[in-house]
Design brief:
Strand order of the largest sheet: 12-11-10-9-17-16-15-14-13
Order of helices and strands: HEHHEEEEEEEHEEEEEEEEE
Radius of gyration: 25 Å
Number of helices: 4
Number of domains: 2
Mean pLDDT: 86
Distance between the termini: 76 Å
Helix content: 25-40%
Shape: elongated
Oligomer: single chain
Number of strands: 17
Length: about 280
């Protein structure tokens, strides 16, 4: 008797899960039509459909005493439904390519959707939902290279159809009181790392690597959010500078900043960010 009761409770649990997934899909349709909400990955729609059908069939099989013919018919319908969604799951990524990456601390999800070379960065909301936020300024060719510079800043490096290297930085926080500020001005000073030096002053930002110096005027420095800037030359990304998580800006400009910055070279080859400390 206890075993039969446990099985039925499990059946009701599966049924509740199926209804929950069904309501999730209904809510998704409503939000999508009203405020342009999307799943962080379009394939989630079909994965949820498949999970719904599996939970529903399992629940009905446990809770309802189907005849043998009834079970065969119900199973056949669910198999067709699963097969159709599996096919759509596989083919959906050909039209709109979904690129997702989770931050090292698992608190943020980078969501990018690419359609025929046009890439759009989606800002995530409530876990699995997102909304289009920024379109990449350059059409892309080939694959994207994603690197999390900090737990809340991710660099996306790609080659454009102009055959130049570009970078897009997705940021999810700040290092101050939540207001907007200029990263270039905040890192004013001389920063040192292994075989690398960064100087930020009134003329712009210079980067010296292995004795070779590149100077970037302020007009060639692009800020992303409140955490990073990209240094460009001839319409091509060269370096990204991000504020490390221990960076603290001071409201009193006469006081030196605290913490580090992260320097990252814009190239398609695999490379690692470099941590720099300020000279005091």
């Amino acid at each position: 008797m206890n075993k039969e009761r446990t099985v039925r409770l499990f059946g009701w649990l599966l049924f509740v899960l199926a209804i929950g997934l069904f309501l999730l899909q209904i809510g998704y349709f409503i939000l999508q039509s009203q405020i342009q909400v999307e799943y962080i990955d379009n394939r989630l729609f079909y994965i949820i459909n498949i999970a719904f059908s599996v939970f529903l069939l399992s629940a009905l099989t446990i809770l309802i005493p189907f005849s043998k013919a009834g079970r065969v018919i119900a199973t056949g319908i669910i198999i067709i439904f699963i097969a159709a969604n599996s096919y759509l799951l596989g083919s959906s990524n050909y039209k709109v390519k979904n690129i997702s990456s989770i931050s090292p601390d698992w608190k943020h999800v980078l969501s990018i959707k690419e359609n025929q070379g046009r890439a759009v960065y989606n800002r995530t909301y409530y876990g699995i939902f997102s909304r289009p936020k920024d379109a990449f300024p350059n059409a892309i060719t080939g694959d994207l290279k994603i690197k999390w510079l900090t737990n809340d800043a991710s660099a996306v490096t790609y080659k454009g159809t102009d055959n130049k290297i570009h970078q897009f930085i997705a940021t999810y926080g700040d290092r101050g009181n939540g207001g907007y500020y200029h990263v270039g001005a905040e890192i004013h000073g001389n920063w040192q790392g292994e075989n690398v030096q960064v100087i930020s002053n009134t003329e712009g930002i210079s980067v010296t690597e292995n004795g070779i110096t590149d100077q970037f005027e302020w007009g060639n420095i692009v800020q992303f959010g409140t955490l990073a800037v990209v240094l460009t030359k001839d319409d091509q990304a060269v370096w990204t500078i991000a504020l490390a998580e221990n960076f603290k800006r001071n409201s009193n400009a006469s006081l030196p900043v605290e913490g580090d910055i992260v320097l990252y070279k814009a190239e398609m080859a695999e490379n690692q960010p470099i941590t720099l400390k300020i000279e005091k």
